Amino acid sequence: MDIRIGLLGCGTVGAGVIDLMRKRSNKISDMTGMRPSITRVLVRDLTKERGIDLDGAMLTTNPDDILSDPDIRIVIETIGGIEPARSYILTALKAGKHVITANKDLIALHGSEIIETADAAGVDILYEAAVGGAIPLIRPLKESLTANDITDLLGIINGTTNYILTQMTETGADFSEALKEAQDLGYAEADPTSDVDGLDAARKLTILATIGFHAKVNLSEVEVSGIRSVTAADVKYASEIGCVIKLLASGTDRNGILSLRVSPTLVPKQHPLAGVSGSYNALFVRGDASGDLMFFGRGAGSLPTASSVVGDVIEALRNMRLNVSGRVSQMVMPHKTVDPDGGSALRHYLRMSVVDQPGVFAKIAGLCGDEGLSMETVLQKRASKGTAEVVIVTHEVKPEVIRRVVEAFRQMPSIKSIDCVMPVQPMTE
Ligand SMILES: NC(=O)c1ccc[n+]([C@@H]2O[C@H](COP(=O)([O-])OP(=O)(O)OC[C@H]3O[C@@H](n4cnc5c(N)ncnc54)[C@H](OP(=O)(O)O)[C@@H]3O)[C@@H](O)[C@H]2O)c1
């Protein structure tokens, strides 16, 4: 049977999807008994060079050419962003079309609405490419691992920040230099806010935690801090205590109490995530029956992302053939409480600038004692013009206590600034 597909957007991912669909067309027909073909492609600019051989007659700037065409059975959305992608997807689903999307922003913010609409229409909504590019994460969590209670999700799920931090580690570059290089190489966007401030990773964690912890998770429940405050000095000090700095997304479920965090984190050099460098992504998953699992691979790029999108197309085709579309819905998702203390106790790294005079250390130690915070290491790193740089590594303490102590430090006249605060990831047991 011939199946017509409409593609919304033909940029990095969309062009990769067209390319891969062509390369695999015989195999897809063998596997599904269907002959799918992309027949219409929605873009903004009909004249743009797209780096692929494309019949100009396929291109359109009118979304109705896809959304209102009853012969198009599958819609692939690779536009990105919230609108008009959300409206297009909802229209397609309501019209009985299966939808495949790579759009993490949309699934993180409007996932419930979209999934409920697909459920009501009895069609597939598939979004493997939304998290981790080529790495299979959604389907393993949604299908293969459902017999488990997932207790831990820990990962590097933003390639841009991982590239920047890797460059800072390997070359000693400062944040701004490494960011500029990432932009020049196309790893970071001209406006890098969403990546470097941790928002992209937080959206992806929202999606993973919703599925993994079988809970209604809101983006606002993720504690987010980005990597702008990380300096070359932090990278060096981290190395001196046997760690590298990574932007980690961490989710835990302890007997129904969730903790969700994205933050730059000191990771011991022997930890499996420490060696995940450049634009690669990785996710560590702990299930109560499965034990520990690690997923690793390319988190972005044209063909790696197309690999997941086209995998979803094949699943939709198989479901159509078997008449079982809409089979894996979210069903009932309970809301779980988020730990107000910020989750498990962890060691923390603090770098601050203090007035370089006698008695300051005693004041810092006194305040920590009052708050029940015990210090593992205190190092004076540099001093110039009456200011000393001090690095403290604490013993294990709840994130809420660290927040309180940092607030109290900010009120102390002898502390000029708190420049960087990061948790230290323990080794996996
Ligand atoms: N890039 C990756 O490696 C990657 C990895 C995983 C997930 N994703 C996700 O995949 C999606 C697409 O990313 P991308 O990197 O391929 O983006 P992109 O290169 O910017 O491509 C976006 C495409 O959408 C079209 N478009 C944008 N707004 C439109 C509108 N209002 N109406 C019609 N067409 C419109 C653009 O048309 P013109 O070409 O005419 O401007 C372009 O072809 C995003 O959700 C992204 O988060 C990307």
Report what the structure shows.
It is a single chain. The protein contains 14 helices and 17 strands. With 429 residues, the protein is of the alpha/beta class. The chain folds into three domains: 2-133 and 302-322, Rossmann fold, CATH 3.40.50.720; 138-299, Dihydrodipicolinate Reductase, domain 2; 347-424, 2-Layer Sandwich (Alpha-Beta Plaits), CATH 3.30.70.260. The strands form three sheets. Strands 7, 8, 9, 10, 11, 12 and 13 form a seven-stranded mixed beta sheet that branches. α5 runs parallel beside α10 (199-212) and α7 crosses α8 (175-184). The chain starts with a strand and ends in a 5-residue tail after the last strand. The protein binds NADP nicotinamide-adenine-dinucleotide phosphate. The site of NADP nicotinamide-adenine-dinucleotide phosphate (NAP) has 23 residues, from α1. NADP nicotinamide-adenine-dinucleotide phosphate (NAP) is lined by residues 9-14, 42-45, 48, 78-80, 84, 102-104, 129, 133, 300-301, 305.
Key terms:
429 residues; alpha/beta; Rossmann fold; Dihydrodipicolinate Reductase, domain 2; Alpha-Beta Plaits; 3 domains; 36% helix; elongated; binds NADP nicotinamide-adenine-dinucleotide phosphate
